[in-house]
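Section 5: illustrative case.
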């Protein structure tokens, strides 16, 4: 009863019920069995995960199946990308999204970066939504297919509207991706020069929090080394 009152419960049974919902056993059973339970600390404990008014979660390796998108294509210079991407995103959501038919889920936005040209320092960015197929692309719009692949996924949750995802947030996300690239202990390499995309489910915004995911395709470093070795064998070089 003392523990229940200390943690804001008016009744002992309310505390026991809440404990069992969280951990699958009662406090009494925990005392008797000595079972190890997994405790998830509050998010605010992880200062290293803070990014502005939000939190960025460590990467997960996920498999993304092939999907089709239609949207507006923008050629953006490297120097302007983190500033212009939020602007063209809002423009698409407000003006262009409703013009696309046969969408899989109009609430889910995809910002796709491809055709990165390091010499001329630009990239193509597609503001888009997922569609069933590419048979009916409206005039002035562009269709593309993202192939099945393994991806490194970062997740961001911010205490603000998704329209407020800005230069600083995207820059922070990019730095996290760069840390992944530079970490020699990780067995995966990011194929960031091929494609990257962000995903925002606008329907998840509840008036307080928004969510964004950042995906970059990956490949095992061992496999990459083998591919380079085969190329040398094929070319006759030692």
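Designed sequence:
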């Amino acid at each position: 009863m003392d523990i229940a009152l200390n943690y804001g419960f008016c009744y002992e049974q309310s505390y026991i019920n809440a404990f069992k919902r969280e951990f699958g056993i009662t406090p009494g059973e925990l005392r008797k069995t000595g079972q190890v339970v997994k405790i998830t600390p509050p998010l605010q404990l992880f200062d290293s995960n803070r990014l502005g008014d939000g939190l960025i979660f460590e990467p997960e390796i996920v498999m993304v199946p092939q999907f089709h998108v239609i949207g507006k294509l923008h050629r953006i210079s490297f120097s302007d990308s983190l500033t212009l991407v939020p602007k063209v995103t809002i423009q698409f959501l407000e003006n262009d999204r409703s013009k696309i038919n046969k969408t899989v889920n109009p609430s889910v936005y995809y910002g796709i970066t491809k055709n990165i040209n390091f010499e001329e320092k630009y990239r193509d960015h597609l503001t888009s939504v997922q569609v069933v197929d590419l048979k009916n692309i409206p005039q002035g719009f562009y269709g593309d297919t993202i192939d099945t692949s393994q991806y490194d996924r970062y997740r961001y949750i911010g205490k603000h509207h998704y329209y407020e995802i800005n230069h600083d947030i995207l820059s922070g996300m990019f730095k996290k991706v760069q840390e992944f690239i530079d970490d020699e202990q990780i067995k995966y390499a990011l194929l960031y020069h091929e494609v990257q995309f962000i995903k925002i489910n606008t329907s998840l915004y509840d008036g307080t929090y928004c969510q964004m995911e950042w995906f970059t395709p990956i490949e095992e470093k061992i496999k990459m080394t083998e591919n380079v070795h085969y190329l040398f064998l094929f070319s006759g070089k030692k």
